[in-house]
Each structure stands twice: as C-alpha cells, then as structure tokens.
Write a structure and sequence with these properties.
Blueprint: H1 3-7, E1 25-27, E2 37-40, H2 53-58, E3 63-66, E4 76-78, H3 82-93, E5 102-107, H4 112-125, E6 130-133, E7 138-140, E8 143-145, H5 154-166, E9 171-175, H6 178-183, E10 193-196, H7 204-207, H8 210-222, E11 235-239, H9 245-251, E12 255-260, E13 267-275, E14 278-285, E15 288-294, H10 299-314, H11 319-328, E16 337-338, E17 346-350, H12 355-366, E18 373-377, H13 388-398, E19 401-404, H14 414-422, E20 431-432, H15 436-446, E21 452-456, E22 463-466, E23 469-472, H16 475-485
Parallel strand pairs: 1-2, 2-3, 3-4, 5-9, 5-10, 6-9, 10-11, 11-12, 12-13, 17-21, 18-19, 18-21, 19-20
Antiparallel strand pairs: 6-7, 7-8, 13-14, 14-15, 16-17, 22-23
Helix pairs in contact: 3-5, 4-10, 4-11, 8-9, 10-11, 12-13, 13-14, 15-16
C-alpha cells in the first residue's frame, strides 16, 4: 500500500505531502523492521520507540510515524498519539478484516477463557471455520500461536485477523481484557456480539478503583456501534445477576440479551444439581425449558455455559446443536482440571487468581469434598497488592489446610508477597512455603483417601516468572510427578 493511501485513513489536519513509497509492512518493534516497513514509535512502560527509530531506518524502514520531530533520512509523519494512530493504520493496512467476519468479544473478570472455548466448540461443531484469541493462545483453524497478552495490541490483532481470513476463518472469538479496552488495542474491531461474564476485584494496580475498572469494560459495549442493521444485528450478552450489567446496558445501542440464575433472564437456568462428575440444570428460553447435562462443575460453570449458549444462539446456531455441543465438552485446560495418576485423593489445578474466582472454586469443591481440603495459592508480583490478604482469607475460610506460596513473583520479593497475604489471616491457621514445588509436594505428601487438593492461580501456564527470568513450571506436571514419587 502506498504511504499516501495509508495515511489518508488518519485524516490528518495537515495532510502529508512528502515522498510516497510502497509500504510492505507496519512494525512497532525495530527488530522486526524489513525493507519497506513503516515504523511506528510507541511509548511503552519501560522503553520508548522513538529511541529506536534510527535503528528501524537502518533495518529498512521507509517512513516513521512519531509524536515528535526526529532527525531521520526518511519521511517522519507526526501525530499526537501514535498508539491511537496505529490502530487506524493497522485496520487499513490489513483491509479491515473484522468487517468480513463474525466477531464475538468476551470481557469480564472471570470466565473469559472458558466461555470463549465453549463458544468456539459450539461453532466448530456446526462447521463454522473459527479463530480464537485469548489468554492461552491464538488459534487459527487448527494452528496455535503463542500469545503474550490476553488481548494483543492493535497491530498484532489486525494481523491475526487478516491471517484468519486468509485461512478461511468466518467467525472469530476473542477475550477482551480491561487493559486492552482502556489502551485502545481493540479500536477498529467490528464486533457483532459482546459478552459480559462478571465483575469482581482485579487489576487495581492498573485501574486504581473498581469504578474505573468497571468503566473500562463498558467500552466493549459502547464500541458495538450506534446504528441498527437488520442484515448484521449487534448483540450485547449481559449477566443479569451482576449489577455491573446495568451500566453496560446503558452503554450500548445494541440489542441486549440477558442470562442468569438468580434473576429472570432471556436465558435462565433453574433446578441446578451438581456432583463431582458434572452438573444438570434446565435452561428456560421464552417460557420453554430444555434439560442440560454438562461435564463441568460449579455454579460459575453454569454461568459460562449460559453466556456461551446465548452468544451462539444470537449467532444463528440452532438450539439443539448448541446443547449437543455443550454436553460433549469435557473441560478447558487449567480450569478445574483433574490430575489423575491413580491416587485415592483428588488433585485439581485451576487458574483462579482473583478473590472471587478462588471463592467460587473452593465453594464448588466444598460441595463434594468428603474430608480435608488443601489449597495451594499465591499472588503475582507487580500486580494488585490489595487482593493478597483477601485471597489468603478466602483460602483459610474455605479450606482445612491452606498453604501460601509463590505464584509469579516477578520483580518482588516472594517473602514480601507472602507477608501481604499473611496480614489478612492474623491468628488463623496456615502454612507458608515460598517454593511452589515444595508447597505442592507438601500437600500431596499429607493427603489421604477422600481429600481434595486445589492448586490455584496458574492453571494452564507452563512457566514461572521469578525476577526477570522465566522458568519452566507446570502445576499439572509437578503434581503428577509428586503423586508418582510419593
């Protein structure tokens, strides 16, 4: 694409009239720049892309987008906000891919990953060609690509959507984080369906207050647009049992569809019965009920299933096909995942890393646990410190044997993180073991028949971040080895 044609999409107050080279790629990492690239200078938390503009030119950049004058030998186009401009240019360069597919976005504190996978399974089972973007990976057809963030930055995101179209994908499902919404990473995404799971405390290191956090998530619903189209209707799928839904209802012009358990909703679950093997319930839609038997446990799993059913239904999937698909799901990696090596006690790995999600999982375990409940839990470093004592208190309240340990301490001292947790349970019984492997081994060495061990916080993750180093670490692998070596 010619530089002039690309910049035309920015609608600059003073139009650019300089050289007009052919732009073959857009990059914001100077190391990825090749001959023909447009390099965009982005100010990050730790580095400033403006400092690498000269290196980008040396690597072949034919133009640079900047927030200030730079002494370079190629055209420098100055804008007030390169991050915002990058979203516009990425959408234009990759030919507005989301306008050519059905796009479903899911936001909320907990349940995004499970809900996205459930929706993807339903759509795949009716032969939709799907793409998936989220915490665990990006999936294009059958190809999986590692991801750094739950929601990639706009340049990567639009490139992935373009790759999906080239691979024949007609429907994309993605997790949309509050960070991404606040930073504008999803600007340019033409969502057809936006799903809200729930809202509870998380990310207050970034958003500072729950009101700011709640507002950030409302942006997904406001970005559904302000017009109506009978040929391409937009839907907001809201949790009727979460008070934040009222704000999101007011934030959108899209058609609102609700789901819930405790309050009346368009997709309403009743007569819920749980065992350690699964859950049965009736879903009521327009006063007609349908029995459902899922291989997932916990009230929160019912919410995820309801949200998935609603999203698939408004995506024109027949209800009988939706239910058939949902009932065949055995689970999602790292979400209430059983580690079974023939032991007489139960070991569960779960991603629960917020107070609300930890409480939900422990309550679910309490519903079928016959004896002791061990919970191994930590809190991430360089993240919301206010939730640390809350996590510890919940662990002590809902388990018989709480063990505090390291999660991903990052740049923080693991002992300092544990101290923050311990401040929430003064006078209560618990054990602190900084080494995560040692904590897992301790619980497994003490468990007996009928006990349940929950290893919380990391779920599907296969690494642990200590300082600036990333080490191989998978709770499931460590637990299995400990069971076998016992």
């Amino acid at each position: 694409m010619k530089l002039h044609d690309l910049l035309h999409h920015l609608h600059l107050v003073v139009p650019y009239q300089g050289d007009n080279p052919e732009i073959t790629s857009i990059e914001n990492d100077n190391r990825l720049v090749q001959e023909g690239s447009l390099f965009i200078c982005i100010k990050g938390y730790t580095v400033d892309g403006h400092d690498f503009a000269e290196s980008a030119v040396h690597n072949g950049a034919l133009a640079v987008l900047s927030e200030k004058e730079l002494p370079l030998s190629v055209p420098v186009i100055i804008v007030s906000d390169t991050t915002r401009a990058m979203a516009v240019l990425a959408d234009a360069f990759y030919q507005q891919p989301t306008k050519k597919m059905h796009l479903i976005g899911i936001t909320g504190t907990n349940g995004k990953t499970t809900t996205s996978h459930l929706i993807e399974k339903i759509l795949s089972d009716v032969n939709r060609s799907t793409g998936l973007i989220g915490t665990m990976y990006t999936k294009i057809g059958e190809q999986k690509i590692e991801t750094k963030n739950t929601t990639p930055e706009s340049l990567v995101l639009q490139k992935r959507f373009h790759q999906m179209l080239e691979a024949g994908v007609d429907t994309a499902i993605m997790e949309v984080s509050s960070h991404a919404l606040h930073m504008g990473r999803v600007h340019g995404c033409d969502y057809d369906v936006a799903v809200f799971t729930n809202l509870s405390q998380d990310h207050l290191d970034y958003h500072k207050t729950m009101e700011d956090y709640k507002h950030a998530k409302s942006l997904l619903f406001s970005q559904l647009g302000n017009t109506f189209s009978p040929d391409k209707p937009k839907y907001a799928i809201l949790n009727a049992d979460d008070s934040a839904s009222e704000l999101y209802r007011k934030s959108t012009a899209a058609h609102v569809v609700t789901y819930g358990i405790d309050h009346n909703a368009d997709f309403h679950a009743r007569n819920i019965k749980m065992t350690s093997a699964g859950t049965t319930f009736e879903i009521v839609i327009k006063e007609k009920s349908y029995p459902i038997n899922i291989q997932l446990i916990g009230k929160f799993s019912v919410y995820n299933v309801l949200a998935s059913i609603a999203a698939a239904f408004v995506s024109n999937i027949p209800l009988d096909k939706i239910i058939e698909s949902i009932e065949s799901v055995k689970g999602v990696d790292g979400r209430l995942e059983l580690v079974n090596a023939g032991q007489e006690y139960t070991v569960i790995v779960d991603y629960a890393h917020t107070p609300d999600s930890l409480e939900n999982v422990l309550k679910t375990i309490q519903s079928f646990a016959k004896k002791r409940v061990f919970v191994i839990v930590g809190c991430g470093g360089d993240r919301d410190k206010t939730k640390r004592p809350l996590m510890a208190e919940i662990a002590c309240r809902y388990s018989t044997d709480p063990i505090f340990t390291s999660d991903n301490p990052r740049s923080e001292d693991p002992l300092a993180i544990l101290k923050d947790m311990e401040n929430g349970v003064i006078g209560k019984s618990y054990i602190s073991i900084p080494d995560r492997k040692a904590a897992i081994v301790r619980a497994i060495s003490q468990a007996s028949e009928g006990d349940v061990i929950l290893i919380a916080g990391k779920g599907h993750e296969t690494y642990q971040i200590i300082g600036s180093e990333v080490y191989d670490f998978d709770d499931r692998v460590v637990a299995r080895e400990a069971i076998e070596e016992r």
